[in-house]
Amino acid sequence: PGTLTVGAPADIVLLDARAACNTPLHHTDSNVVYACNGGAVMTVLCQGRVLMHERVVPGAEEIVREASAAAQALVGRAREA
């Protein structure tokens, strides 16, 4: 079993208890394992780093812009070929 202690790395996922997959929420463990999906994920921490907070991934907009520019460049090169 893991522990949450000051200074220790932590992997934590916070779920929205009000999400449709958690309704009704009678047996939390069963809901998480059998009914929950990614739509219920609110916040993710991995080794203490916040990877997503309140459904926002830091830096995601920049990644999407770069991917879009790369895709446009690829299509442009394909048209020239």
Describe the structure.
- With 81 residues, the protein is of the alpha+beta class.
- It has helices spanning 28-35, 60-80; strands at 12-15, 41-46, 49-52.
- Strands 1-2-3 form a three-stranded antiparallel beta sheet, with no helix packed on it.
Element layout with pairings:
Layout: E1 12-15, H1 28-35, E2 41-46, E3 49-52, H2 60-80
Brief write-up:
The chain has helices spanning 28-35, 60-80, and strands at residues 12-15, 41-46, 49-52. The protein has 81 residues and is α+β, with helices and mostly antiparallel strands.
Distance between the termini: 57 Å
Query: Overall pLDDT, averaged?
Result: 91
* Gyration radius, rounded: 19 Å
Structural class: alpha+beta
Per the principal axes of the C-alpha atoms, what is the gross shape?
elongated
Name of the CATH superfamily: Urease, subunit C, domain 1
The residue ranges in which pLDDT falls below 50 over 5 or more consecutive positions are none
Fold-level CATH name: Urease, subunit C, domain 1
What is the helical fraction, as a range of percent? Answer: 25-40%
Number of DSSP strand runs: 3
The CATH architecture comes to Roll
* Number of H- or I-type helical stretches: 2
Described by strand count, sense and barrel closure, the largest sheet is: 3 strands, antiparallel
State the domain count: 1
Strand portion: 15-25%
Strand order, main sheet: write it out: 1-2-3
Helices and strands, in order, run as EHEEH
